[in-house]
Amino acid sequence: MSLTLAQIAEAIAGQLIGEADYLIDSVGTLVHAKSHQLSFLANKKYKKFLFDSQAGAVIVAPGMGKDLNTNVIEATDPYVAYAKAAALLYPAPKTESEIHPTAWVDPSAKLAENVSIGPHVTVESEAVIEAGVRIDAGSVIERNVLIGEGTHIKANVTVCHEVQIGQRALIHPGVVLGADGFGIANDNGVWIKVPQVGRVLIGNDVEIGANTTIDRGAIEDTVIGNGVKLDNQIQIAHNVIIGDHTVIAGCVGIAGSTRVGKYCAIGGGVAIGGHLEIADGVQLTGMSMVTKSISEAGVFSSGMPVEPNKNWHRNVVRYRQMDKLFERVKLLEKQIKD
């Protein structure tokens, strides 16, 4: 798909400096973009590549386009502007009303007219599939599931019974929604299963990355708010509640019954304990471990960044000596006081 720079600039609310009729058909990095491609600069460390870029046009911050020898679109937030431009150049395919002959749809399921069901998909009893939904190959939609209008379920996704998914969600391959939470009770030394009878409720405009798992509630529901964006390989346990527009990077684990607020940002590899409260607007940097509730917005970190192995071993030895050092300091303070 080709668009003129004038069309792109108007769509992303940018200021064009250059040829209005110049055609762009795709995107590329500053280093490798060709003359028919659009690129952008959002991170200052890549500024060194800007002046030699062969891109047909570059999106930059206001005031940065004066001395460039290519077409420029200046935008307040170049990364957001690029995201909007890329969406224009790579539009999502329209859903065509089609049920593949290898798919199995229970007669009691309710499908809107313009729904696409791919090869080897299973749709069980009383499921409701709304208009514009696309379900790709090998996915399983269990009984009493609701999938909202315009949602795209990619290949090999399992949506377990009674899960509800809002409108315009994007569910990537391998996701499991509504599997049983880890509920067990110890009966005289033997672990017995606690039935998991809640649901998973997914809001509107949610994206869930590949192989992420969200467990159903034990009694009440697990809830993912509107506009939440989840990366790959995240584990969300039973009865967790994620507030609207929170973003979570890959390999995060959230234990049961924890509530995460709205507009939070959780870095990769973070571990969050159970039965905690995370306030709105909290940012957790990568690999942090959260064992206590966080009651106010801000940036929080834990863990030790990587360092040379020799330094690490020395610091570990000193860490193990801290208790003895603490007792010595207490004794010295007492002696001074006496």
SSE topology:
Blueprint: E1 3-4, H1 5-11, E2 15-17, E3 23-24, E4 26-27, E5 37-40, E6 57-60, E7 71-74, H2 78-89, E8 98-99, E9 104-105, E10 110-111, E11 116-117, E12 122-123, E13 128-129, E14 134-135, E15 140-141, E16 146-147, E17 152-153, E18 158-159, E19 164-165, E20 170-171, E21 176-179, E22 184-187, E23 190-193, E24 200-202, E25 207-208, E26 213-215, E27 222-224, E28 229-230, E29 235-236, E30 241-242, E31 247-248, E32 253-254, E33 259-260, E34 265-266, E35 271-272, E36 277-278, E37 282-284, E38 289-290, E39 298-300, H3 309-320, H4 322-337
Parallel strand pairs: 4-5, 5-6, 6-7, 8-11, 9-12, 10-13, 11-14, 12-15, 13-16, 14-17, 15-18, 16-19, 17-20, 18-21, 19-24, 20-25, 21-26, 24-27, 25-28, 26-29, 27-30, 28-31, 29-32, 30-33, 31-34, 32-35, 33-36, 34-37, 35-38, 37-39
Antiparallel strand pairs: 1-3, 2-7, 22-23
Q: How is this structure best described in words?
A:
The chain is α/β, with parallel strands linked by helices. It is built from 4 helices and 39 strands. Helices cover 14% and strands 28% of the residues. The mean pLDDT is 96. The strands form 6 sheets. The protein has an 11-stranded parallel beta sheet with strand order 8-11-14-17-20-25-28-31-34-37-39, with no helix packed on it.
Structural class call reads alpha/beta
Number of helices: 4
Mean pLDDT score: 96
Sequence of strands across the biggest β-sheet: 8-11-14-17-20-25-28-31-34-37-39
Helix content: 10-25%
- Return Rg in Å: 26 Å
